[in-house]
Each structure stands twice: as structure tokens, then as C-alpha cells.
Amino acid sequence: MASFFPQVTGSFALDEPPKRFWLSSVAVGVVTGVVVRLYRALTLTVGPNESMLYVGAAFVVGQLIVLGMATLHLGSFTLKRWISRAPLFALTEAATELLVSLGLIGLGVERLGSVRATFGDWPALAVNTLLARVLVVLLYAGVLAGVVQLVRRWMLKREHRDHTLQAVEGRK
């Protein structure tokens, strides 16, 4: 009987394109920026803006998208590489959001609260978006790095791999 599956599964190359995508801070940042700004425009245009619960939930979901994408991206690297990757992701994401925002203002669909945003509102939007995204992503990356280190230490101690723990920490 013919074998339909190879003996060595490493011959499958199906996950190469997605893997390459997650390794690029710029690519992940651009996709995240487009998705988050379009999501924001949609929720503020379609939803009930007078409901603080709705606006709060929409804000939380937007932050979860940004932080989830940051997690997926940073998870492909060692903690030492996060120092350069996290700021690059945050800056790329914020810059993309700002460019999409300019396009949405031009189309007349960008909102600033309950009113339409104008090109005169864009500088304030730019400063707020840039500061908020960069600070949130950098703080989150710092907390996530701390959690990763604590879990790693706990797992190594639990498995009685003190020699590995000493090697990781640089002790002899």
C-alpha cells in the first residue's frame, strides 16, 4: 500500500511564510496599525458612542489586538532581542496608524470622540497615538519579559536543572 505521508515531517514547508512574517517587526507593526485604526474607525462610527461601556470595551479590545500582536511577534525571539524589537514594533505600529488616520480623515470617516476629525486635529491625534502606543507596548514588553524570566526560573528549579539555571544566569 502506498504511503501518503512522508516519514520525516520536517519536509513540510507549509509554515515558512507565516514564520517569516512574525519575524519582521515592520511587517507585524504595519498590519497591526492598519487593523487597529480601521477597527477604531468602525467602532466609533457604527457603535453607540454615548455608552461608556461600549466605548470602554472597544478600547480594551483595541489594546488587546496591539498587545496580542506584540506578544506573537516578540515570542519568536530571545529576551535580549526584545530590547530592539519592541520599540521598533511600537513605532511602526503607531506610524502606520497615523498614516491610516490621515487617509480616514481625508475620507471623512475618522472620529475624534463623537465628531469627525479634521486635518487640524491630526497633530494632537498623532502625539496621543504615538505616546500611548509606544508607552503601552514598552511597558507591556517589560512586564512580559519579567514574567517569562520568573516562569523560566521556576520551571528550571522545578525540574532540578540547577546547572542550566546557572548557565543561563551566567554563574559558574
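Second entry:
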Amino acid sequence: MKKIEIHSKQETQEFGEKLGKLCNPGMCITLNGDLGAGKTTLTKSIGKALGVKKTISSPTFTILKIYQGKMPLYHIDAYRLEGLHQDLGFEEMLEGDGLAIVEWGEFISDILPKNRLDITIHNGEDENRIFEISAVGKGYEEIMEKLS
């Protein structure tokens, strides 16, 4: 696990753009943290690095939003899926032709890919955050090491 201190929204955006440039099709990133921790802000920055032109917003009520950049960006918010045990059809997006970003991934942990990058965002004072980054499975350790 790697911990990174973030001190402003701008640093969050810079981190997201750096991460986005390291992403390849078929990757999955989970974002966990309290409401308002910066999960959607981070997703917006990753999308910017991928060349997404549309405004990225939280998919809380729609559960899934798809954006097109240099690869598809599948933005899933699993917050409202806690306890649901039905086929949601996310599997092809989680390991498909684009990048899947899953907010509140713990609520659909049974269908998450075995290989992924997990990021937990802890709130601090004002805009300060601590990002805990874990590489789960093969292939994500290198990405984790490139983040600082």
C-alpha cells in the first residue's frame, strides 16, 4: 500500500491526470471514501487525461455513465447497489475495452475484477486528503509505484 498526501483540489486534479495517463483499456480503479471526499473530482481529472470532452458528473442516481475519450470511461457509482444480488451487466465494462472507475466498490466486491487499483480517500482538514492506494492482483504495482 502507498499513502499520498493531497493538500488541495488542484493537487487532486494533478494526481488524477497523472493516473489517467498511466491507464490502459481493460483496467479497473475503485474509489472509496466518505461523501465529499473527492471521488468524482478524481474521476473528472482521470477523464481529462483520457481526452473526455463531456462534463463528468457523479452517476449516483443513474448508477452508470459512459464517456468517450481515447478509450471508453465507464463511471459506476455502486452506492445504491449495497445488498443487491442480481446480474447488473457490469462485468463486460469492468474488464472490457475501456477504463472502469467504480465509486463505492465495496458494495459490488463480488463482481470486481481480481486485478485492479483500489484508492481510498480519507478526509482531512479543509482540502487535505490522504489517498491510500493498493494494487490488487497483477499489473497494477507498476502504476502504483509511478504515482507520487
